[in-house]
Amino acid sequence: MTMQLRAYLRLFVDALKLSRVNNLVIIASTQYLSALFIVGHPSEYVSIALDGKLFALVLSTVVIAASGYYINDYYDIKIDLINKPSKVIVGRNIKRRPVMLAHQTLNALGIGLGLMVSWQVGVVNLICAFLLWWYSNQLKRLPFVGNLVVALLTGSTLLILGVYYGHYDLLLVVYAFFAFGITLIREIIKDIEDKDGDASFGGVTLPIAIGVRRTKYVLYVLMVGFFVALNYFLYRLDSLKMTGYFLILALPYLHFLLLLVRADTKIAYSRLSNYCKWLIVAGIFSMVILNI
Description:
This protein is mainly α. The chain has one domain (3-289). Helix content is 83%, strand content 0%. It has helices at 3-18, 21-39, 45-49, 52-75, 77-83, 96-117, 119-137, 145-165, 170-193, 195-200, 206-210, 212-237, 240-262, 266-289.
């Protein structure tokens, strides 16, 4: 293997790392599973899976999400050198200007793909692309606002299917709310984990503004409120299988709460952040389990 080829492969690998490819796979899988098992009917599975416009919608969502990760790392070089120095790619392995160019190109591609699906999807993608830039540029350094925006954007990856299909099933709203709630909790935990780097460069996130202890109290309130609201939605759905699955999922949720109470180190909060991601995956996987 020549040195030039190795350099290209390294660049490709770094670009994938920068785009958080694992998260992109989760986003794409979630949208397809939702289209198949929530919106669709078993007799429509093949036509849904082969739907070119649905593929364009999913691809546009993934592309805009990747663009958001690019611009986030572009703005956060100095902060990341404090919070996670071993994972910094922008400015080291990839220069800043190509990252900004990739961000702009991916946004244009994502909006264009959305317009191919429908003008409504195109407009939603444009708004999401703008919010991701605004979040990275300013909102993430504000208490709670940035967390809320990311959570809303996460929920929108499911709700946009309602835009495409022209109706919103209550079950789709429930899963969107689940993704929103867990993401909001996760984003606040990430702010606790990254507070030292954020504070060094003028960030005023929730743990910086009110302290870690009070931020944990906010999390407790959010977690209880989220759990109560989710159970209300499940009551409205009146599905025994769905209720049973989420009651089982309540066990790791309670375990997560116990770990949060005990957490007092950066490593502990990092593990809790990853725990949230697995809770989201477990919740989304129920789409398959409940349709077997």
